[in-house]
Amino acid sequence: MGVALDGKTLYCIAGRSLYALDVADPLAPKVIGRLDGMDNRRQVAVADGFAYVVSRETGLRIVDVRDPRKMRLRSRYDSVEFATGLDVVGKTVFLSERINGVEAVDVSDPDHPRHLCIRKTGESQSNRYRNGFLYSGEWGTGRVTVFDAHDMRAFREIGTLDLGGFGDGLEIDGRYLYCSTGHDARHHRAAQLLAGYRERKIDDLADPTKNNAELVGAGRGLDIFDLADPAKPRHVSRVDFPVFKPRNDDYWTVRVADGLAFCCDSHNGLFIVDVHDPARPKVIDRFCVPEPGKDWPSGAISSVAVGEGCVYVTSFPGGLWVVPVAGVKPPVRDKGPTPANATAAEAYPTDKGKFHVYRPAAAGQARTACVRGDVVYAAFGDAGLHVLRIKSEGGFEKLGELPGGRRVTDCCFVGDRLVTAEGLDGWAVYSLDGPTGFREVARRPTTPLATVAFWCWPAGTKHAVLSPRNGPYCVVGLDDFTRPDPFCKLHVTCLWDKYLPDALVGNQLAILNPYSGLVWCDFSGSEPKAGAREKRGEQPAGAQVNGICAFRDRYLYTVDDRYQFVMPDGSKTELRTLPPVPEFQKTARPPLPAFRVLTAGWWR
Questions:
Q1: Which of 108, 178, 372, 404 could serve as a FRET partner for 147 with CA atoms 20 to 30 Å apart?
Q2: In the structure, how many helices (H) and strands (E) does the chain have?
């Protein structure tokens, strides 16, 4: 999945493991070390004797690799959202976390990494730092976000750059920023010109007799910016790769050395671009990995590192490939001065005149809370599950915690029982003797296909819906919680966020597919069954649904800046536009300034 070179040692993440390979002979790597437990790995970086592995829903792992034959896990950091990309700058790690943006983490103590701050962006997938500036590749918005990172006390966004496709991998070489972009960009200038998404031969790109408009890759390609003014990069050129439709795997790493840019384009292959003159980039070669059973150009090319006279290319599921490239040498990235006040964490002050706040003593983030009477069960991730009483005079009194110190990312009540999602420990059902008398009734373990228990929802009083990050929603009964096969599996595109309501309406459960509409589950019979599924085209064109909840005898969900009601029989009201912010704020009391800012940002 990912690869990084550090001196004569190559580090590769594959399966659930981190591998160390001796590359003293660059064309003949030898495995010399292995450390398991990396989970859903995505990218790896190495600096000053430590390897940093981002593992999506299980956060950031810090591994001591000063002896690559005996690598040792030092800590795991529970990132705010799914850790996808990273850059290491001194003792600061910048994590790309999709629509939650860029999170800065203090790693000066590798055993106790510490949150510093987070800045929301369009959809950060990768980032790169140099000389006090951080650049973040944004997927959904097709942009690069530029941050001033000279001082962590004033880490802030200062601008954006438009790309020719969905933003992803970044690299800085000399005074140029290289931005690898992905496919099917709706905003792309030639996306509407492409009929059939047929693949183009690489030789066509250099043929002046060919129709260049048809050669544009609907977002696949490389944008190059001049960083002479690092706060305001100037676009100098773009090169597009051949069109290829399937999007089963999304990987767009770019690395630059000796006037060559090596660009991963997933199943489209690895493209080698001559960038000796960044204003006139030219594709000069293409490397593809065979994938048995697929009539595609390549297995998914996921990452690349430049070695001595070669590049190391990772392919999913094709393994690690060594590709000779005459004359190239490992690049040396000069990141310049590190940020000032690198360990300064934002205080996140709370006005206690407006809010009652509880923060756990141990490091952990508030993920979910469910309430029974005046008792709150709060899931704090790594800090576990805390039991709080709402005091009559305001505020919280801690009553206890779930024993065992498990990581808890979600919780809900199904009837009188508490269901929890506990990460690598699976899902659990507890009977309660008083607020803190936890008695484990059943536990459902994770599986090779669902490696992390992440979410749980109530479905009436006898059933729960469970979800990992990387598999279908499973409907299970509390009385047979451990049965291997759930009653039904609900396959919904993009299982990366919560798209379920908090309750049934009648005997129906409506689940949102964020791209194609509603998927139903029918609880009217003796066993739950997957029900109707909306067809593409039944939802508003080009819209993306955002959230859903039970509302009296119907469901309410939002579509962009509109809302709609849907009945248990599938009938709907007309779409209505949400009221403008000033109307929403009308109240008998003057609105609070903080509330005014919050709602303005939310509705916008």
A1: 108
A2: 3, 46
| 585 vs 594: CA distance, rounded Å | 12
H-run or E-run covering 584 = helix 581-584
Q: What is the pLDDT of residues 191-244, one digit of tens each?
A: 433 433 334 444 444 444 554 444 456 788 999 999 999 999 999 999 988 877
Task: Say whether 528 sits in a helix, a strand or coil.
Answer: coil
**What three-state secondary structure class fits 198?**
coil
User: Can you read off the two tokens belonging to residue 174?
Assistant: 């000399």
Q: Count the helix, strand and coil residues of the chain and give each as a percent rounded to the nearest 5.
A: 5, 45, 50
| Cβ–Cβ under 8 Å, residues 444 and 491 | no
pTM: 0.84
Q: Give the 3-state secondary structure of residue 407.
A: coil
pLDDT band at 470 (very low <50, low <70, confident <90, very high): low
| Tokens found for residue 164 | 């020719």
Name every residue whose Cβ is closer than 8 Å to that of residue 41 and which is 6 or more positions away in sequence.
1, 2, 13, 14, 16, 18, 53, 54, 55, 56
Question: What domains lie within the chain, and their CATH numbers?
Answer: 121-324 (2.130.10.10), 353-482 (2.130.10.10)
Note whether 353 and 593 are within 8 A (CB). no
Cβ(488)–Cβ(548) under 8 Å? no
**Pair type for strands 234-240 and 30-36:** unpaired
